[in-house]
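User: Structure tokens for both sequences below?

Assistant:
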Amino acid sequence: MTFLISWQIYQGRTHDVLAHFAQLTKEQDDALMGDDITLIGRWHDVVSGAGVCVVESNSIEAVTAYALRWNNDMDISVQPVIDDEAARQLGSALVI
């Protein structure tokens, strides 16, 4: 399954959160994510303290646990998403 994770850092916390993130090594970041999650990509709007990432996992529990590691400092949403091919297949079933 593919998930879109988006966040908005709480007002006044952006510098602290960004400084913490900047100090994480790739290995530490991977460990926070865990073995059951594959990061597809992550994009940051550091000025507004917002961002998104796309991950793949067969475990919503693992994705939820990852989001919980950060939600003291930001509002986070986790949404299952599908690619174009899957969306077209679903759309084809709606054609009358």
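Moving on to the next sequence.
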Amino acid sequence: MKVFVTGENGQVVKALIKLADQDSLDVYTAGRPWLDLSELADDDKCEHLRLMIEDIGPDVVINAAAYTNVDKAEEEGDMAAAVNTTGAGAVAMAAAKLNLPIIQISTDYVFAGDKTADIYDPENPEYADYDAEDLADIRANLSDGTYVETDATHPQGVYGQTKLEGEKLAAYVNPKHVILRTAWVYSETGNNFLKTMLRVGAARGELGVVNDQFGAPTHADAIAQGIVKVARNIVEQPDNTELYGVFHMTCRGYTSWHGFAEAIFKASELAGGPTPKLNSITTEEYPLPAPRPANSRLDCSKIARVHNVELPQWQDMVMKTVVKVLGQTQEDKN
């Protein structure tokens, strides 16, 4: 299978490139300066992109390029929109003109992050005439607080808004679309929470980490493997409309940023790395320009059912990543 991927330096793109060596997969990437999504409002640039894709002849186009600086997006809204909205639409349109499916990578930030679990109240007068079987069905269908694909979107910042608009535009211009929402991405490459914790932890003896935001730390390698499986499904079954649409894809389980930091430094201790003291703080105690979702937990049952994609538990890939990052740090010192 041959895929064309926008971006070259992102965590997910690098993870896809690694898979090309072991999964009978040809990965072609294009990033700046050869392909800059912020310039795709220009018709000539769009045609250049279409010709580039046509020349490569992929089975699937994957838009993994994005403006991801959540805080800076509050000041650079036009740039964020040019990449995340207009750019995403242009990539999807180029794919559509060649009758190719588009896989658009998106984010938990399209939601408000305020969803809570439903609580069963046996004293609810509405249940008075329900029998035991009906009540069991009601309890079974109560939400656990995770976001499903059909939940109302309500982004709280510019980044989330531009990504949501990019989702809508990609879906509008290309019927063969898969929107994959993920969250809390990390790996041994790029800028991410795990690498920041190890860097800052090596310089300080004590850290305060937010303990009231929840999500599933998701390794870029796991995301890449999930993307490839989805891509193979839509290539092998191009007329199966169930395979298209919006899907959530994160590692299983969930934790807080503080819980993630605890796992990182537990692994770091075993690997001979930094072990600072961790203090639990609230979001209010760590203000940032852009709001963060308090709840980034995504229900991934749809992608498991439709695409047979189930990512590992979030804890499973922490240790190996910490070891790799600590090894890179040691190499840099040498």
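User: Anything stand out in the second?

Assistant: The radius of gyration is 21 Å.
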